[in-house]
UniProtKB/TrEMBL annotation:
PANTHER family attached to this UniProt entry: HTH-TYPE TRANSCRIPTIONAL ACTIVATOR TTDR-RELATED, HTH-TYPE TRANSCRIPTIONAL REGULATOR
UniProt protein name: LysR family transcriptional regulator
Source organism per UniProt: Paraburkholderia lacunae
Lineage: Bacteria, Pseudomonadati, Pseudomonadota, Betaproteobacteria, Burkholderiales
SUPFAM superfamilies with a match to the protein in the record: Periplasmic binding protein-like II (SSF53850), Winged helix' DNA-binding domain (SSF46785)
Keyword Transcription recorded: yes
Record key words, sorted: DNA-binding, Transcription, Transcription regulation
Family assignment from sequence similarity: Belongs to the LysR transcriptional regulatory family.
Domain HTH lysR-type: residue ranges: 4-61
Gene3D superfamilies given in the database record: 3.40.190.290, Winged helix-like DNA-binding domain superfamily/Winged helix DNA-binding domain (1.10.10.10)
Domain of life: Bacteria
PROSITE patterns hit by this protein: HTH_LYSR
Length: 300
């Protein structure tokens, strides 16, 4: 007995479903001659007549119908097994190291990475949080989430949105020093600085322009700066997600809302010039459509 090709069995089922050899050939994308040869080969292999043929139609025999009832689920199982094998072979697997700013990463990146891992069970991820920008090569980082404008670099970047930024301070500070009504008035206030320098330039929308500010408290830690502003050390400026809880609790209030500062760009970065693993590319696409939209009012 010849071992038949699965395609020949599918021809038999197509003829039963379509009602004729011509219609079966059309549905399978084959020629009428190849369909006829397939049925003839099946009949030789099985040593039985499967169809009674006339010039106008084909009529399945009882043996054909009985054979088809066993054949159809068997072919379905073969197809399911093939799909399962292909899916397993193409599953994402391996490790991903993701970098992100400390507060932003803990609140917004970590839950999304966890969701990604729930979908891809053979992937492991490490989230590296840092206040300062991470060097992808030195830290062996596959993908980093970065807030702010990007300097020229050899990294590939995908901007996924922008975040609102606000100017804020403690009610007690404003009760003592007054509320600024225009960004230019910040020059006369203590401002909380996020750099090593003694002065910073804060940029606002077109109506507010740019103003150089100074203050007595500075830190490279966003958490420290926001806490200091809430304690009355001066006026702070931050992405709203960092101070939303302070605002909700009434510990700080925003000022200069009509001159809202320039928004903060959010980028995904990865190394240029080296292959990107499928698992990393999948996480990039996953974060790109979920990261900023999931932040609600923080988005501009």
């Amino acid at each position: 007995m010849t071992r038949m090709n699965q395609d020949d069995y599918e021809v038999l089922l197509a003829i039963l479903d379509e009602g004729s050899l011509t219609a079966a050939a059309r549905s399978l994308g084959r020629t009428l001659q190849s369909v006829s040869r397939a049925i003839a080969a099946l009949e030789r292999d099985l040593n039985t007549t499967l169809f009674h043929r006339t010039t106008r139609r084909v009529q399945p025999t009882a043996a054909c119908l009985k054979f088809a009832t066993r054949l159809r689920p068997a072919l379905g199982e073969i197809e399911a097994a093939r799909d399962e094998l292909v899916e397993h072979a193409t599953q994402l697997r391996g490790d991903i190291r993701v970098g992100a700013p400390t507060a932003f990463g803990a609140e917004f990146v970590a839950p999304l990475v966890a969701q990604f891992l729930a979908i891809h069970e053979n992937v492991r991820a490490e989230l590296v949080l840092a206040e300062q920008h991470l060097d992808l090569a030195k830290a062996n980082i596959d993908l980093v989430v970065r807030l702010g404008h990007l300097p020229d670099s050899n990294l590939r970047a995908r901007q996924v949105g922008t975040l609102r930024r606000v100017v804020f301070g403690a009610p007690a500070y404003f009760a003592s020093r007054g509320y600024p009504t225009h960004p230019s008035e910040l020059a006369a206030h203590d401002c909380v600085l996020r750099q090593h320098a003694l002065r910073e330039t804060w940029r606002f929308n077109r109506a507010g322009g740019a103003v150089e500010v100074a203050g007595r408290f500075r830190s490279t830690s966003a958490l420290a700066c926001n806490s200091a502003a809430a304690a009355g050390a001066g006026i702070g400026r931050a992405p709203i997600f960092q101070v939303q809880k302070l605002l909700d609790a009434g510990e700080v209030v925003t000022v200069l809302d009509s001159f809202e500062p320039e928004p903060v760009p959010v980028h995904l970065l990865w190394a240029e010039g080296r292959p990107v693993a499928r698992r990393v590319r999948a996480l990039i696409d996953f974060l790109a459509v979920r990261l900023v939209p999931g932040m609600g009012a923080a988005v501009t």
